[in-house]
Design brief:
Strand 6 and strand 7 form a beta hairpin. It is globular and about 50 Å long. The longest helix has 19 residues. It has a five-stranded antiparallel β-sheet. The protein has a four-stranded mixed β-sheet with strand order 1-2-5-3, with no helix packed on it. Strands 15-16-17 form a three-stranded antiparallel β-sheet. Helix 2 packs antiparallel against helix 5. The two termini are 34 Å apart. It has three domains: 69 residues, Uridine Diphospho-n-acetylenolpyruvylglucosamine Reductase, domain 2 (2-Layer Sandwich), CATH 3.30.43.10; 125 residues, Uridine Diphospho-n-acetylenolpyruvylglucosamine Reductase, domain 3; 78 residues, Alpha-Beta Complex (Uridine Diphospho-n-acetylenolpyruvylglucosamine Reductase, domain 1). It has 305 residues and is α+β, with helices and mostly antiparallel strands. The structure holds flavin-adenine dinucleotide (FAD).
Length: 305
């Protein structure tokens, strides 16, 4: 591999960059600060034959205990900035969604209120088609700049294959920037909406725990009879179920919590047991919402995609 480009570090622990705080280290890690720096790193990784992974806020991410081969990126500085241009917002892919919502409210702009409770970045939200309280990303997203080894390409929502918690973005494609088209509103009213959404979330979900939020997607299977993944897990007796340092939260059955020093393998074991119980009791095959980086052993039959 020879000399590393400036800013690239070896053996960088990733657990602290995730909200569940499990998993090993990245073989190589960098925090590109500009589009040019990101493009150079992607081109270098391509020449070296390295896989590229990207971490946003790590709020939906399981990192393999054995670590991650190749180059892992976390967008920084210009690539996590938020800028206003009239009723439009230009954000780096690494900008935090709650900060984007708060900034829009401050400026009297409406449309992205739903981001206030999604503890991820703009890039992670695009990749995951994140949503809350009926706000739809595709309704306000104007375009994204996607960087791949071949170069940078601008894509509009109709080119992003959005479906429930899914997009057509491939691994190795990095959302570097995004533009949101918002509309003018009373700043006080938008702020009041954010406060209301925060309060509703606080009442409904546990806070201050190490988790990646919803573990499984809500099933569309008729056997689920309209119940959410959390309701099925709860009915299957999974609330509080614990293996090693990980378990389904006592407060929210679809949230897995790291009670201390959990490993990713323990988290996966909890997922497997929850999924097995729901399958056995209701005949519903739950599909994970959480994404993985590195060799995490999620059985292939768990995913219908
Ligand atoms: C307490 C809690 C509450 C949550 N509530 C919600 C909710 O209401 N609605 C909801 O939809 N989700 C929710 N989530 C899940 C999570 O916040 C979202 O999926 C979020 O969009 C993930 O963004 P991230 O930056 O943390 O991505 P990460 O977890 O870092 O990564 C997730 C995936 O996105 C990819 N990715 C990250 N950044 C980029 C980028 N710049 N370019 C390309 N790919 C990228 C990663 O490689 C990975 O595949 C919640 C999570 C927690 C912990």
């Amino acid at each position: 591999m020879g000399d590393l480009p400036p800013g690239v570090q070896r053996d960088y622990p990733l657990s602290r960059l995730t909200t569940i705080r499990t998993g090993g280290a990245a073989e190589l890690f960098a925090r590109p600060a500009t589009l040019t720096e990101l493009e150079r790193l992607m081109a270098w990784a391509d020449v070296q034959g390295l896989q590229v992974g990207v971490v946003g806020s790590g709020s939906n991410l399981l990192v393999a205990d054995a670590g991650v081969r190749g180059l892992v990126l976390k967008l920084d500085k210009e690539l996590s900035a938020i800028e206003l241009d009239g009723t439009r917002m230009h954000c780096g892919g690494g900008a935090r969604l709650p900060a984007v919502s708060a900034r829009a409210a401050q400026a009297g702009l409406s449309g992205i209120e739903f981001g206030v409770n999604i503890p991820g970045t703009v890039g992670g939200a695009v990749r995951m088609n994140a949503n809350a309280y009926g706000g739809e990303l595709a309704r306000v997203l104007e375009w994204v700049d996607v960087v791949a080894p071949a170069g940078t390409e601008r894509r509009t929502p109709d080119q992003l294959g959005f479906a429930y918690r899914r997009s057509s973005l491939q691994s190795g494609e990095v959302v570097a920037r995004a533009a949101f088209a918002l509309h003018e509103a009373s700043s006080d009213e938008v702020k009041a909406t954010l406060a209301d959404m925060r309060a509703r979330r606080k009442a409904a979900q546990p806070s201050g725990i190490k988790t990646f939020g919803s573990t499984f997607k809500n099933p569309s299977d008729p056997c689920a009879e309209g119940r959410t993944a959390g309701q099925l897990l709860e009915a299957a007796g999974c609330r509080g179920l614990r293996i090693g340092g990980a378990g389904f939260s006592a407060k929210h059955a679809n949230f897995i919590e790291n009670y201390g020093e959990a490993t990713t393998a323990e988290v996966v074991a909890v997922m497997a047991e929850g999924r097995r119980r729901v399958q056995e009791r209701f005949g519903v095959a739950l599909e994970p919402e959480v994404q993985s980086l590195g060799p995490v052993e999620l059985p292939a039959e768990w995913s219908r995609t």
